[in-house]
Amino acid sequence: MDAAPTLTHCPYCSLQCGMGLRRTGAGLDVVPREDFEVNRGALCGKGQSATALLGAGRLTSPLVRDGRGGLVAAGWDEALDRIARGLAAAQEGYGRDAVGVFGGGGLTNEKAYALGKFARIVLRTSQIDYNGRFCMSSAAAAGNRAFGMDRGLPFPLADIPRSGCVILVGSNPADTMPPALRYFTELRANGGKLIVIDPRRTRTAEQADLHLAPRPGSDLALALGLLHLVVAQGRTDEEFIAARTTGWEETRAAVMAHWPEHVERTTGVPVPQLRETVRLFCEAQSSMVLTARGPEQQAKGVDTVGAWINLCLATGRMGRPYSGYGCLTGQGNGQGGREHGQKADQLPGYRLLTDPEARRHVAGVWGVEPDELPGPGRSAYELLDALGTEVRALLLMGSNPVVSAPRAAHVEGRLRSLDFLAVADVVLSETAALADVVLPVTQWAEETGTMTSLEGRVLLRRRAIDPPEGVRGDLDVLHGLAQRLAPGREKGFPTAPEEVFEELRRASAGGKADYSGISYGQIAAEGGVFWPCPQGSAGTPRLFLDRFATPDGRARFAPVTDRPAAEETDARYPVWLTTGRVLAQYQSGAQTRRIAELNEAAPGPYVQLHPELAARVGVADGEPVAVLSRRGRAVAPARVSRDIRPDTVFMPFHWAGEGRANTLTNPALDPVSRMPEFKVCAVRLEAAGASGAGASGAGDAG
Ligand SMILES: Nc1nc2c(c(=O)[nH]1)N[C@H]1C(S)=C(S)[C@@H](COP(=O)(O)OP(=O)(O)OC[C@H]3O[C@@H](n4cnc5c(=O)[nH]c(N)nc54)[C@H](O)[C@@H]3O)O[C@H]1N2
Ligand SMILES: Nc1nc2c(c(=O)[nH]1)N[C@H]1C(S)=C(S)[C@@H](COP(=O)(O)OP(=O)(O)OC[C@H]3O[C@@H](n4cnc5c(=O)[nH]c(N)nc54)[C@H](O)[C@@H]3O)O[C@H]1N2
Ligand code: SF4
Ligand SMILES: [Mo]
Known about the structure:
Elements: E1 6-9, E2 18-23, E3 28-31, H1 45-48, E4 63-65, E5 71-73, H2 76-94, E6 99-103, H3 109-123, E7 128-130, H4 137-147, E8 165-169, H5 173-176, H6 181-189, E9 193-197, E10 210-212, H7 219-232, H8 238-244, E11 245-246, H9 248-255, H10 260-267, H11 271-283, E12 287-291, H12 293-296, H13 301-314, E13 324-327, E14 346-347, E15 351-352, H14 356-366, H15 380-385, E16 393-397, H16 401-404, H17 408-416, E17 420-425, E18 437-440, E19 449-452, E20 457-461, H18 474-485, H19 497-508, H20 520-526, E21 529-530, E22 555-556, E23 575-580, H21 596-601, E24 607-609, H22 611-617, E25 624-629, E26 632-640, E27 648-652, E28 666-669, E29 676-677, E30 681-687
Parallel strand pairs: 6-7, 6-16, 8-9, 8-12, 9-10, 11-22, 12-13, 16-17, 17-18, 23-27, 24-26
Antiparallel strand pairs: 1-2, 2-3, 4-5, 4-18, 14-15, 19-20, 20-21, 23-30, 25-26, 25-30, 28-29
Bound molecules: ligand 1 (2 copies), iron/sulfur cluster (SF4) and molybdenum atom (MO).
């Protein structure tokens, strides 16, 4: 008889679909897991094929750089010794902050917590940040500003079908979270309206009652224009504004200049569509705005999200059932990854490193003096940009910036200029291939730990199979390095995940993201627990129903005004470039490009462009087209399609080499969140001929 499957969750995105893993002779099979209500057994192709990487294509031995510059297999002791020497040498030569740490939103809570602690009390460097800065930091900053707290969705996904109207801004769940699409299908089946805002007619937009296609980077103007109409039509909820918010007068004044005709010119969205959006949103009993990377990955992402939050507050669509603003987080642990201390300015429990009380509390849990803790460091792009100059050595865990960072040719150059690079990864990613030492680590099905999904629901990832010989966990890596770099301190780095979680509970107690009432046992029994969950609480599925998390309990309007993208089109670069995802590939592609069935479904990069633009450039469908920006040149086959604005091209960012979209992107940062502007820059197109000549990265000014 078959043994019962191990109940766990998918290794990839923040939906964290439940799945079962059943042992077979050869390895593990994915079987549906019906008890987890979020996906009820449904998986996308990535989840379905995730066990493929447990076998071939992965790393199974540490690798070290030999005298001739190649990477050769080595034992764990040698590899860890070399890393300890490399990091120590940089600090001896140039000071503590000469060592950087770069983490990832795919790491479990336990790993993210341990990595932040490792940076602060073993390396004692301020230079730690993570790839979530590329993902959710703008929505997080806007949420903190408005509500005093940042949890992606303030309500469970199951509330969506019960709302009257949902505006999805720059989000394409049909490709990025397929099993979540049913919440929107059910919304419409219940008579609710779906409005999608995307420069492309995506498979998500196809299902909408109304699709607005603004030009990239114009979401702020769009949201301001909608609020202008709300005010002009007397659709504000004065009672709600008076009872539960502050700052309305200034915000109202700020939107008055945003006349619909003016907004139509800035965004390209016709006035009647603006009016229809306001009508559907305001006439529904309850309504929601959900944003994802479209409006957030902009150098004005914080203000853009703030403008959408303003719309919810002014119409009383916040802190009420089936209403509110939410952000759809991205990585598997995009939410938890930013709560427990791998972010440059944070300590566990979503505490601030600059808050003396927070420092005292966390230093107490860690058994060090508060003064020993460094201050906040650089943000992710700024850290990558400082490599080889102020930061001489880097420990990287859970990211592949050679493919995924903006202005990637420059970032690749910075990584190459390091004195020492150590990478812990599952596979030999493009970034790991540059390292002096590569450590092969365990994968999701081989380890236990917690992940916090887009709903703020803390989930349990369970070990279903033993890792192959030669592979160790990230927690073992940190333990081994602590032992070498600060003998004695390794006691603070246990390798058993539950032990780390027990400490995380204490460290987060009393913070905004309070996990102190959560235990592995409770998660297992309940299929997940929503934070905040202080001792004795059963968790908090819905936030803000009575009060916001600000000191006075009121939500704060943000009096934002419009501004252009960091880089506007001009005569030399007349076309907008935007970037994003395809269904069958995940992120930098490090994992999914190694899985045969996913590669067949999405074999390579492309440039999506409208037939009018294709005709002007002189390329036909399938022919190579060169895309040039001020950062460099990329070449990929043209995909001619009417599903995109004629002034805009789209490239997915999952590939390295000459089709790498991030060769082109602009690293302009949001002043508050330090999020780069992945979603908008100016480019020029050229037919590249059958040879497709031109190296990616050429033209990078350095
Ligand atoms: N298949 C797949 N799924 C994934 C991932 C993956 O790599 N592959 N990654 C996961 C992660 S980490 C994340 S963050 C999420 C991201 O999930 P999404 O945010 O849904 O993904 P994107 O494709 O980055 O962007 C969404 C849409 O924004 C549109 N867009 C581009 N520019 C603009 C703009 O200026 N304004 C507006 N309004 N829209 C714009 C794009 O056309 C795109 O359709 O997906 C998660 N799920
Ligand atoms: N142009 C453009 N660029 C973008 C975006 C965009 O929309 N457009 N989106 C941005 C966003 S939202 C994101 S989230 C980033 C993501 O981009 P990356 O940060 O590059 O994310 P991944 O490709 O998921 O990289 C994770 C790496 O860690 C490894 N890994 C997985 N699990 C573990 C683990 O448990 N431990 C360790 N040590 N390693 C592990 C994987 O094999 C992989 O090599 O890309 C950003 N870049
Ligand atoms: S939607 Fe996300 S969590 Fe669900 S199976 Fe696909 S990648 Fe995994
Ligand atoms: Mo992301």
